[in-house]
Write a structure and sequence with these properties.
single chain, binds coenzyme A, globular, three-stranded mixed β-sheet, Aminopeptidase, 315 residues, alpha+beta
Length: 315
């Protein structure tokens, strides 16, 4: 059970009354703050491109803690991790060096929990094994239950920490079977920790070397990701004014524009091809009589994606 509220409550009011938390505001100022802090602590928080930071600010996924009205820390996280409507994820949390050890990080975690969608019962995050932040998550009441390999270049291990929200008091902990996102652009198996095993002790089996085909596929994917993409506004214009190069797909309330070929309104065969071309991105209901496909959150799929943690009881 996450104990952050108790930790906060134990703090004398004089110490925390000058700290306030708000959502990040779209625009240059908060974006610049996030970017500068993530660059300073890139070894700990990793890296998100500016567009991703911007998109997360716009979707209200970022909270900023202010000290004396100036940004001093931020947390970036969201619900629906791996399409599980009960699972939230924290992608980044960072506190300016001068503001540390005054429960600002704790306050951000508490704020994140307080403002989660009501269905969220568990919150997870990945943390490199070799950094002090693991102690922070431990102090916040999270439990280390699994691990995966980090990038081949750095050879680190990432620990999966999970905490329960008040609504998840009785929720068994679980971790994903594998992950495939992030900069590594490679599927990574996730290994459960043994009961009583400390995060510091985790040693993973060696990563199998990439086969030649996988190497070139990975290179291709990386190169493709680096190519400049048309802006969303440009794609929307093309869609709206009948140049017909994209279909509009609404996935879990988010509108996406997917390229289709040939360049005309797709029939359902075209649509199916697009869905296959973008695995996991979109789900369609057969028989929807328009080029707009609605796809809700798919909790139903999540069972096969998760492994229950061993030897960890519900609180
Ligand atoms: C990790 C981080 C967010 C913690 O923020 P913070 O505001 O300093 O943390 P808090 O003051 O809320 O700490 C609460 C408790 O966590 C533990 N803790 C926090 N930082 C710790 C550290 N560096 N070493 C050991 N324990 C730590 C302590 O038990 C602390 O309570 P205490 O100060 O009474 O001993 C901050 O150090 C940071 O931004 N680090 C760089 C970025 C990073 O590592 N992000 C996390 C990536 S997964």
């Amino acid at each position: 059970m996450i104990r952050t509220a108790q930790q906060l409550a134990a703090l004398p009011e004089s110490e925390h009354k000058c700290v306030s938390i708000r959502s990040a505001i779209p625009g240059a100022k908060d974006l610049a703050f996030l970017d500068s802090l993530q660059k300073k602590y890139s070894n700990q928080v990793g890296f998100l491109p500016t567009v991703a930071l911007q998109a997360n600010i716009e979707r209200a996924n970022v909270s900023i803690a202010l000290e004396n009205d100036e940004p001093a820390a931020y947390l970036l996280g969201k619900g629906n991790y791996l399409r599980d409507p009960h699972f939230g994820i924290i992608y980044q949390a960072a506190v300016s060096y001068d503001a540390r050890r005054r429960l600002m990080g704790t306050a951000l975690v508490q704020h994140f929990i307080d403002h989660m969608a009501p269905g969220i019962r568990l919150i997870g995050l990945w943390c490199a094994q070799d950094i002090e932040a693991n102690e922070f998550w431990n102090a916040c009441g999270f439990e280390a239950i699994a691990a995966r390999h980090g990038s081949r270049r750095k050879g680190r291990v990432h620990i999966f920490w999970v905490g329960r929200t008040p609504r998840g008091r009785h929720e068994p902990l679980r971790y994903p079977k594998c992950t495939r996102g992030g900069l590594m652009r490679e599927q990574r198996e996730v290994f459960g920790l043994q009961p009583g095993e400390e995060y510091k002790e985790v040693v993973l089996p060696e990563l199998a070397p990439l086969a030649e085909g996988e190497k070139s596929a990975k290179k291709k994917r990386t190169n493709r990701a680096r190519q400049p993409r048309a802006s969303l506004a440009a794609m929307q214009r093309a869609f709206r004014y009948g140049q017909g190069k994209h279909i509009c797909v609404v996935v879990a309330g988010v509108t996406k524009y997917l390229p289709v070929a040939p360049f005309e309104m797709p029939n359902f065969t075209d649509l199916a091809r697009v869905m296959v071309a973008v695995p996991g991105e979109a789900r369609t209901k057969p028989g929807v009589p328009s080029n707009v496909v609605r796809a809700g959150p798919s909790g139903g799929r999540s069972k096969e994606l998760w492994t229950p943690a061993t030897g960890v009881d519900a609180a």
